[in-house]
Amino acid sequence: MSLLEQRYRRVxxxxxxxxxxxxxxxxxxxxxxxxxxxxxxxxxxPHWREIASVAxxxxxxxxxxxxxxxxxxxxxxxxxxxxxxxxGFYAATGVWTATRPPLDGTLTGxxxxxxxxxxxxxxxxxxATGRVRAAKTAAAVGxxxxxxxxxxxxxxxxxxxxxxxxPSPARLPLDAVPLxxxxxxxxxxxxxxxxxxxxxxxxxxxxxxxxAPVAAGLAVAVAERAAIWLIVPTGAxxxxxxxxxxxxxxxxxxxxxxxGAAAAHTVARLRTGRHSAAVPLxxxxxSAPAALIAAIRIAPGAAGEIADVMNLTAAxxxxxxxxxxxxxxxxxxxxxxxxxxxxxLRPAD
Length: 349
Known about the structure:
Number of helices: 12
Distance between the termini: 30 Å
Strand content: under 5%
Radius of gyration: 24 Å
Keywords: Membrane, Transmembrane, Transmembrane helix
Structural class: mainly alpha
Transmembrane segments: 78-98, 110-130, 137-157, 177-196, 208-232, 244-265, 277-298, 318-336
Number of strands: 0
Order of helices and strands: HHHHHHHHHHHH
Low-confidence stretches: 103-110, 344-349
Shape: globular
Number of domains: 2
Helix content: over 70%
């Protein structure tokens, strides 16, 4: 076996084992036929375009839309549901952030993250109505404000670390929260590009679903404003608001939404007896980063009543999300169809 053939076979390890067992020799032969004859002494390597094509094929297979490969289809459906849910959440929180009142009852304006969330609302509506390419473009545009915020947060953190009086180790996780929170949308858009590939049929959801995140964001903003108007006249805002402030935040709302969705899915699963893997796996994929964000908000060295309440609430949210993630991942993995033997694998679409 030549050195070039060895390297081609190494690249093909990106593909599932069952697929390689069916097509590896054929693909290696095609690659070698298209390559220029090169001796091992010349240290030949696969072209980057060939590597990219194999990687793209691996993504399409592992996140497939072909029901003849039920295991890959289930993972593909899980990623696509997670993308739809993630876009919907950012759409709802973007509308909420753009319209929510501060403690004095006036509007907050439209910060960069709120503007990004509004763009995500457009991306969600486009995706829900089957316009996948336009939705990908809108989601990519929505990353621009996050990129600016990530750069600013990284600069602030680097400046703090370079000062003589560096932040304490207990303070560092809290200072890193903005970086982690604003990195999640980039992972979401990458999953969007990978999950909704060219083999996937565009979704066609009811029009009510397309505007549901906007309605949810407005409902949260109205509820928050009503709570402030009810509490402020009693003079209890400063005393009791910190008990619910951690829940009226993106992390808190994510915790409530995911815990509620996991509970609803569990009840529906027990009632109907259906054992779909895609929904619990999607909830696990969404719960994992949310649990990490909740956990990193804990500041063990902080002191004071408010700090204690915030730490306790963040710990509770992290634990709840971790349990949701573990439970949904267990249920989803157990519901996955068994992997087919190599002989039963059909050619790729």
